[in-house]
Amino acid sequence: MRVLIQDYEGIKLWKMLSGLKNQAEIYQKRFADSGDSESFDIAYDVVSLHSQLVSNCKKYEQEKKKRFTQIQRGRLMNQTNRVEPVDLEATIAHNQTQNIVSDVVCVSSSSSLIVVDETEAVGESEAIKKKKERYERFMKQIRFDEVNFQRSNGSYDHLYGTQALRETSLARPKCMRLAKEIPSLAANLPCDYGSSVFVRIDQQRHDLLKFLIIGPESTPYENGLFLFDMYLSKEYPSSPPLCLLCTTGNGKARFNPNLYANGKVCLSLLGTWTGPGWGQHSTILQVMVSIQSLIMVSDPYFNEPGFEKSRGSKAGDQASEGYNKNIRLYTVIYAMKHHLQNPSPYFSDVISTHFRIKREEIITQLKSWGRRAGANSAGGFQKASEEVMMLLQDL
Hints:
Elements (H helix, E strand, L loop, with lengths): L6 H28 L2 H36 L15 H23 L13 H18 L2 E4 L13 H6 L5 H17 L8 E6 L5 E7 L10 E7 L10 E4 L38 H12 L18 H28 L6 H10 L1 H14 L2 H19 L2
Parallel strand pairs: 1-2
Antiparallel strand pairs: 2-3, 3-4, 4-5
Helix pairs in contact: 1-2, 2-3, 3-4, 4-9, 8-11, 10-11
Keywords: Transferase, Ubl conjugation pathway
InterPro entries: UBC, UBQ-conjugating_enzyme/RWD
Pfam family, one: UQ_con
């Protein structure tokens, strides 16, 4: 193994120390002022990184001096002018330093502060891993909550609010099922860097739910936020839940053959699509996960009955890509831009965390989508994506 250590890298690492120290002090003060637990976690991480970086920079300097001495004696120069590691310990110290720099970039990215400019010199895979871990750790803490959907006038901020007001009495089977299902739902909601599901239920009416799906990666829904309203009617659990998509741009966007512009969700579990229907062992979690995994797929065009047979053909693939171009545009406008400008008060913590931590990744995604938009839709897509990028930069 060959390792080439250049002077500029040592200088860069030492310069990072003062930046880390200042960043730790900022978050320590923020925690002291507000009691914000996330600020405490970040401050703790930064202090730990600072300590490790000091140790590794010292090892780095010692190793550099040792190598310089041996080079002067002519013992370690080879034909490529590269320097062979003196010993295993020195090599490990150098590699550890690179990992620590990766951690610094991760903390910097998640806290919207920049400590290192030369990210190309960093072990990016390690930085991404740390970012994913931080994202998932925080999101798991907020994936479920009880809130108040009721307005001051007594109505509910919910698409099924009027029906819920008419059905005030809760039947015993429904109450028993809710008592069993809600705790299980809270503990088992999928939470992953690639896609997650978040739920809010009314404090008084646990049969009124809102859930938010983050569009799965490698689909035209990727990183978009899709809000649904769900109601468990008086017939529940004998009958399936009622469910509507709220993210439609006020009826402008049809996101899928199974997701109508009027909010209708076509799913066999809901009794609105062909296939195995609602059974005595079916759950609301199954409904949410089915929408996430069976409807929000990479090629939704083929969800349309009869279209699957054209998959793999030139005409079918072209039609699918054309369909996806429209979905990507809708995702940018209604599932990203709208939530950045008008975040739901029930999911504001989810929305801000998602877009803040994944900001750079989403910007890269939008640029990639823009290149695939084509001449006919490039103008509209470019305008929408630029607006989203500006909103992301303001976070």
